[in-house]
Amino acid sequence: MIIPVILCGGSGTRLWPLSRELYPKQLMPLLDNETTLLQATAARARQILPESEPIVVCNENHRFMVAAQLQAAGIEGHSILLEPKARNTAPAIAVAALEAIRQADGGDPLLLVLPADHYMVDTAVLGLAVHEGTAPAKEGKLVLFGIRPAGAETEYGYIRKGGRLTPADGDGHTVPEIFGVEDFVEKPGASAAAAFQASGEYLWNSGIFLMRSSFYLEHLSRFAPEVLDCASRALSGARRDLDFLRLDGEAFEACPNVSIDYAVTEKTSDAVVVALETGWRDIGSWSHIYQVMEKDDAGNATKGDVILKGVHNSYVHAHNRLVAAIGVDHFIIVETKDAVLVAPMDQARYVRLIVRELQDRHRDEAVSHSKVYRPWGNYESIDCGERFQAKRITVAPGCKLSLQKHYHRAEHWIIVKGTAKITIDSKEILLSENQSTYVPLGTVHRLENPGRIPLELIEVQTGGYLREDDIERFDDVYGRAGQS
To answer: How far is 484 from 482, CA to CA, in rounded Å?
Structure first.
């Protein structure tokens, strides 16, 4: 039995301003207009293991988006484990391994660990590689999946191959081959990366793993016992929350922030690597997105409403409005409603420094977009000033917000589409297009969409404090009662 484990907890800071803390890259359709990276990963897992439903590990702030995207992709019967705080891949895989053993009633299933932020052209080749790697994984090996380098990439880790463990197939490409592991190199410089590619001795470390659950837990107990202890306590203290399993916050947050590479992979003597070519990329920066996008005759990749004159080898992304560029070469230009990024292509990896400064300044642009997603729909800030803020709110059919009140603001609601069922203290009213109501400060209220089309309204808030933490929830169908 092989269980897919999808790691979906990253924040994707190098893809700012599109990827942000509350709406990260793996939940976005970055490469087309329909399929998110998470959905593509889940579809990949289903193609390789059609009989197995995945264990998904994600941040608790993303839980409703993750669940909705899996449902939209037709992935049923999955388990979603909620991290209260990102603690890197070693703790995430540890709780998944413990949960897999629990689901198997004490059995020892194999785990196929798949990060949710990868791009892959040929899933069938990965399927063959998983098939080839199953035997050594059952025999107690950590099976890595290495990608034959398609360039001198400085943003990936590398695996130096050891001796061949399977017969060559003639060209070394059609059937994935298995090698021992000689060494690991993390993000080499440009000259070293070029030498690695030319030598044929190195593979990109994809971050995809196949192993027995017990193998991983035993190696954690040997090399990173604190990770295993914290993960065990986090799972034993977990509680059900709707369709989610919420890990114990205190125990999980005590986990060391460490990757599987540092905790286990680089320390074990029981690793092998399957070499393959599958058109793989880790979508970690804007330069990686540029590499996999279709390009025009001038080498430009674009998305959205873009006009270019004399521009070459650049990536230009327009999210909300027209973006025009003249005479630049090897540049990244990314526009969102509230931020614009302009950078030379070879500086793309340093976008995280901008995010770090935004965080130091406590700027909202590091955390959320002007449009914020909620389990019931979304809201978008459209204007604000001293003592007022205007939002566009969309409530999905059949959904409702929590029963709540605010201590520092009043709200005016104007319906522009659909039907709203509104509770204000003990009074219930129905409003339709072009009707409005007023929610006084301190009143208990709720907004609901009883109809079959999205409800859209304009909310005007007035008061001395207008941030989102001014809320007390009394009842909530999404399990958020008592939270701000």
So the answer is: 7
